[in-house]
Amino acid sequence: MPPECCRWLVDDAADLARPDRSHVVIDIMPDFITIREGETDQPRHIQVDQYWIDPRHRDAHRDPSLRRFMFRRAQDGIAALIRFNERDALTVFAPPFDINGQWHEVGGYAREQTHSLPEIVKALSG
Q: Average pLDDT, whole number, for the chain?
């Protein structure tokens, strides 16, 4: 497996199972989602880690060790974008995102493809 393939090879994810066992590959490239609190509010960009899930194991993102990793990332303001393929996705907000400390999963499909590096830099630097 090449070193640039996934976050599993990075120290902060070393406690996770290998991708061939967990059925999850954590993309090393950050991305973002855009949310609006209300119709008149300005859009807000939130950084996400992308978790590519084997579609035959759609609940793999609920693994307790992976959820602990998502929680740690959420403490740094990073949400989780669970991708089953290029289109089907689920956004997961760990308890640090919620005033009541709850997990939230927002289902649907990814309206946008993975953003380009210049788009990511622009969205997350402002």
A: 82
